[in-house]
Write a structure and sequence with these properties.
Chain A is 77% helix and 0% strand. Chain A is mainly α. The chains are: A mainly alpha, B mainly alpha.
């Protein structure tokens, strides 16, 4: 289109009597005609469009597009990086939780082991104490039984003497006579079947 | 003259420059091209100056426009099309900002001139043709030969394809130009009704409410059109660039 413009523009001097506009005596730039179809302004518009749009394009492609592209790229990278970081941290947290659980289970096992041994120890100690006490008690009981037997023996032995004396007294009072100790003892022995 | 709906498209010389019989004056159109470029470039430059990892609101706007065009181009022309990203992005931003600046009262709309839109669309089609031949050589002409067409129909189909290809720059430029022109004329006409009815006493002021409401509604519509036309221009650019990248349908 840049090739055709000079042809249009050359109609510039004949602006007023331009056959296209058909309106003679334009007071301003191509006055009278419909402005968008006024070819006398084309050269200027094209030139300034080329200058302004060209500079705009250069500015966009050199500065703005790389800059915004960079911003967006940077943001995307940053988000991806942050997501990775978050994933990493989550894994770490999971690991920590697993380790904690493991530790807790270990501790629990250990605690129950300690409790078991303590219980066993206490049980065996109690058992030992019990057997010891029992032994002591039975020893004491045997001793007591022994002394009871001795006392009984002694008592039984004395029964004869008491019986002799009592019988002697009884005979003396009832019969008025006296009996010898030997006779009474023999009588008692005979009475008691000994 | 203030009521003339065409007056707003008038080009006036601000700094007359004439080289070799060519009128290359710095005009109001040129001024608004400079303003468009300065506004677009300034906005994109300043809002992204902090390179914030967490974008501010304005930085988000710049990033959104970037990603909007980037996804448009990726969808339209594939990832290979991203080499044209600076061009498509520049075109989109230039057309969008030019359209939006034109919405200010008393401001000139750069894109309401056919020669400007035609130049932009020729830039697109020129890029397609040059890149297509450079990349694919004569295979680029496969673009005009769709596969799976019976031999008898081939000349007809090829002719249709060629005509449709040639009409692209025209449709692309006329669409944008006509939308901006018609929208601004309509706005001006309805706004003119408000003024002329308002000058006719109490009854006129009452009657002026309708065109006033219409003007407000049309202003909203025109903002939509301003964005939509920039979008359509960029989308079609992406589709045409797709032909340059993958000519064999």
């Amino acid at each position: 289109m840049f090739v055709v413009t000079p042809a249009y523009a050359q109609s510039n001097p004949t602006e007023g009597t331009n056959s296209e506009t058909g309106a003679p005596g334009g007071e301003t730039h191509g006055g009278g005609s419909f402005p968008p179809f006024d070819s006398s302004t084309y050269a200027s518009q094209l030139l300034w469009l080329a200058i302004t749009f060209g500079l705009f394009y250069l500015f966009m492609s050199r500065v703005i597009v790389p800059r915004i592209g960079g911003i967006l790229e940077h943001r995307r990278d940053r988000i991806a990086q942050d997501l990775d970081e978050a994933n990493r941290l989550k894994e770490e947290a999971d690991e920590a939780i697993a380790a904690y659980e493991q530790e807790l289970a270990d501790a629990r096992k250990k605690a129950s082991a300690i409790a078991d041994t303590a219980r066993d120890k206490a049980k065996s100690a109690a058992e030992a104490e019990r057997t010891k006490t029992e032994a002591e008690l039975s020893a004491k009981m045997a001793e007591a039984e022994k002394s009871i037997a001795a006392i009984k023996q002694k008592a039984l032995a004395e029964v004869d003497t008491i019986a002799e004396e009592t019988a002697t007294d009884v005979v003396k009072h009832l019969l008025g006579g006296s009996v010898t100790k030997a006779e009474v003892a023999a009588a008692i022995r005979a009475a008691s079947g000994k | 003259m203030a009521n003339d709906p065409i007056h707003q498209f008038q080009i006036t010389r601000l700094v007359p420059i004439e080289i070799g019989g060519l009128d290359l004056s710095f005009t109001n159109s040129s001024l608004f091209m400079v303003a468009t470029v300065a506004a677009a470039a300034g906005f994109l430059f300043l809002t992204t100056a902090n390179r914030g990892l967490i974008p501010s609101r304005l930085q988000s706007v710049s990033e959104m426009s970037y990603e909007f065009v980037a996804s448009m181009l990726r969808d339209g022309a594939g990832s290979q099309g991203m080499r044209f990203f600076p061009m498509v992005f520049s075109l989109f931003m230039f057309v969008l900002v030019a359209n939006l600046i034109g919405m200010f009262p008393y401001f000139f709309t750069v894109t309401s001139h056919l020669i400007v839109t035609f130049a932009l669309s020729m830039l697109v089609v020129g890029t397609v043709v040059v890149y297509g031949f450079w990349k694919h050589g004569l295979h680029f002409l496969n673009l005009f030969v769709p596969s799976g067409v019976p031999g008898i129909l081939m000349p007809l189909v090829v002719m249709i394809e060629v005509i449709s290809f040639l009409s692209r720059p025209i449709s692309l430029s006329v669409r944008l130009f006509a939308n901006m022109l018609a929208g601004h004329i309509t706005l001006k006409v309805f706004a003119g009704f408000v003024v002329s009815l308002g000058g006719m006493g109490a009854l006129g002021i009452g009657g002026a409410i309708l065109p006033l409401a219409m003007t407000v509604a049309l202003t909203g519509l025109e903002f939509l059109v301003a964005f939509l036309q920039a979008y359509v221009f960029a989308v079609l650019t992406c589709m045409y660039l797709n032909d340059a990248l993958h000519p064999g349908h």
